[in-house]
Amino acid sequence: MPFDWMKRREFVTLLGSAVAWPLAARAQQPAMPVTGSAEAGSSGFDPRITPARHDLAAKHLAGVVEAQRFVEGKAYEIGASQAPVRNAPSHEAELLTEALKGERVTIYDISEQGWAWGQLAGDGYVGFVPASALSASGPAPTHKVTALRTFVFPGPSIKLPPMETLSFGCQLVIARMDGPFAITASGGHVPILHLAPMETMETDLVAVAERFLGTPYLWGGKTSLGIDCSGLLQLALAACGIPCPRDTDMQEQALGSALARPHELEQLRRGDLVFWKGHVAIVRDASTLVHANASRHMAVAVEATAPAIARIRAAGSEVTSVRRLPPPS
Question: In the sheet that 126-130 helps form, which strands lie side by side, from edge to edge?
């Protein structure tokens, strides 16, 4: 299978904001023209994270990019279990990423066709989400989902038909506890065992990534129903309290420090990040790594490091860097 299947975010067709990851993101521009965004691209801002289109841009970008009008954004949160973030206002458009329940988003435009255009607060990504997935911005979340998936029940019984299915990383406002259930502000009942307070942090990003083993590969995906390589890394690091941009080129520039001799495999240790152009894998131990890939497994899988590097090299891509994260503080 061509290595192109592995290349996460080589070409992006949206504008984004230079607020998040400004140094890392601006250093590498998309290799492909961005639809309706020549003004932002030519200004030096990364078009994936700059909320600007030829007809509309965020007010704080007035005088920085060209647009027909500039507007103040309005704060919302993702009310649906998960929401697709697409590169155009269409259900058939490319999936750029996914927003999870409880994530904050600034919306600049809502069309009559039911599409909202805005920017995610967490990683700065810009795109179109279904307006039906939005809710008014409420109190800060108190808990997060730590199971791969869980259910929200309408009452205190697992025999009741679930109201909703939530994915790892979804954020909730919990009003109180009742036996084995946490009660959300809207009255939903979630198993306490599947939640943790927002301040609870994982300590091993590899262990988090390993929970997703077998999850199908999905370009732009960020859940256990489908995930891509950079989404897997972003979720694993977020669970450990480490901010992480969305795309592999941003991640390669923003995370950790590069090892001087990336091709010496004997130096690899658990938690190191191996980057190719458009792909990332997480070192699991001295001889294996874990990654979401579509070139061989079409899933999150553990693979022997040396054969994986050789396989990808044969498909036309070399390791570009190995990066090591600082030890936990």
Answer: 95-100, 82-86, 126-130, 115-120, 104-110, 74-78, 134-136
d(CA 65, CA 44): 10
Q: Which has the closest alpha carbon to 159: 132, 138, 189, 183?
A: 189
Closest C-alpha among 219, 271, 224 to residue 248:
219
Concatenated DSSP letters of 277-327? TTEEEEE-SSSEEEEEETTTTSEEEEEEHHHHHHHHHHTT----EEEEPPP
| pTM for this prediction | 0.88
- Cβ-Cβ contacts under 8 Å for 92 (sequence gap 6 or more): none
Q: Longest C-alpha distance within the chain, in Å?
A: 58
91-100 b/e with 16+ CB inside 10 Å = b? eebbbbbbbb
Task: Give the ranges where 119-214 is alpha helix by DSSP (H).
Answer: 205-210
Q: Is the C-alpha dihedral spanning 208, 213, 219, 224 positive or negative?
A: negative
> Residue 53 class from Cβ within 10 Å (0-12 exposed, 13-18 middle, 19+ buried)?
buried
- Least Cα distance to 269 among 254, 282, 253 occurs for 282
250, 21 Cβ separation under 8 angstroms? yes
Encode pLDDT of 157-179 as tens digits.
Answer: 999 999 999 999 999 999 999 99
Over residues 198-233, the pLDDT tens digits come to 999 999 999 999 999 999 999 999 999 999 999 999
Instruction: Note the helical H segments in 14-164.
Output: 22-26, 38-42
Give the position of tokens 């279990």: 81
Extract the tokens encoding 273. 């990040």
Task: Tell me the β-bridge partners of 33.
Answer: none
Helix (H) or strand (E) holding 177: strand 174-178
Residues whose CB is less than 8 angstroms from the CB of residue 63 and which lie 6 or more positions away in sequence, other chains included: none
Output phi, psi for 174, to 5 deg: -100, 125
Q: What angle do CA 237, 274, 226 make, to 5 degrees?
A: 55
